[in-house]
Write a structure and sequence with these properties.
This protein is of the alpha+beta class. It is built from 8 helices and 11 strands. The protein starts with a strand and ends with a strand.
């Protein structure tokens, strides 16, 4: 199946995230905390915790730091109680935005999210106002030039829902959220490692933004992603600054 060109935008976002490495550990620790608290401390029985630990290892977090945070979340140590909340809104040109947060103070978080939207040209919406434009799924993205036939064969055999070749040659493997780990493991066992892999909210359609609109949209996204309580920001804008 063919898709639109997304590789440049994916790489752009990855580059932006890499520039903010200082905040990555904080977000991963929160994810470990919530995953362990809700699903238990045993990674064999807790898929969400396994994914969080994989993220931690990928970010070079020491093993003792990972264990400490699992113990803390599972009640062996005292810790902060985090609450998960999702906010939806509109950015420049009506682009759809979803913000996932983990916070110990919901009042503070929603105030900060609302302020970011209003100050930078967006609008905070109501629950469900934009989420219908996204699909909750596992996503693995391979660089242009990857072995499309092999990726497709291994992915579909492992239970992937779809394999999409974008216009720029990037290859996306899409899975049901609960099948993501099995498909990722099968691909890696076959020597196929994705540039980007995770369970995400994938936009069904994109809105093209250029020039000043693109710059304003990027500023809004940067401000949202820099908020302390924000874990992830998903959007359907194709940004060409």
């Amino acid at each position: 199946m063919a898709g639109h060109s997304k590789w440049a935008n994916i790489q752009h976002r990855k580059g932006r995230q890499d520039e903010k490495r200082g905040k990555i550990w904080t977000r991963i620790i929160r994810e470990i905390t919530v995953a362990a608290r809700h699903g238990g401390p045993d990674i064999k029985d807790n898929p969400r915790l396994r994914l969080a630990v994989d993220k931690a290892k990928g970010a070079n977090m020491p093993a003792d730091r990972i264990k400490y945070n699992i113990d803390k979340a599972s009640g062996n140590l005292d810790g902060v109680n985090y609450e998960e909340n999702r906010y939806e809104g509109y950015g420049i040109g009506g682009a759809a935005i979803i913000i996932d947060t983990m916070t110990d103070n919901k009042v503070r978080t929603v105030a900060e999210v609302r302020h970011a939207f209003s100050k930078h040209g967006g609008n905070l919406g109501t629950d469900g106002s934009v989420s219908f434009q996204f699909k909750h799924c596992g996503q693995l993205v391979f660089a242009p030039g990857s072995d499309e036939d092999k990726i497709m064969e291994v992915a579909l055999e492992a239970g992937a829902e779809d394999v999409i070749t974008d216009d720029d040659g990037a290859i996306e493997v899409l899975t049901a959220p609960f099948e993501f780990e099995a498909v990722k493991n099968a691909l890696e066992a076959a020597g196929l490692t994705a540039e980007i892999a995770g369970v995400t909210m994938r936009a069904e359609n994109t809105i093209e933004l250029t020039g000043e609109d693109a710059a304003r949209m990027q500023k809004l996204l940067d401000v949202l992603e820099d908020l302390d309580d924000v874990q992830d920001v998903f959007h359907n804008a194709s940004i060409n600054e």
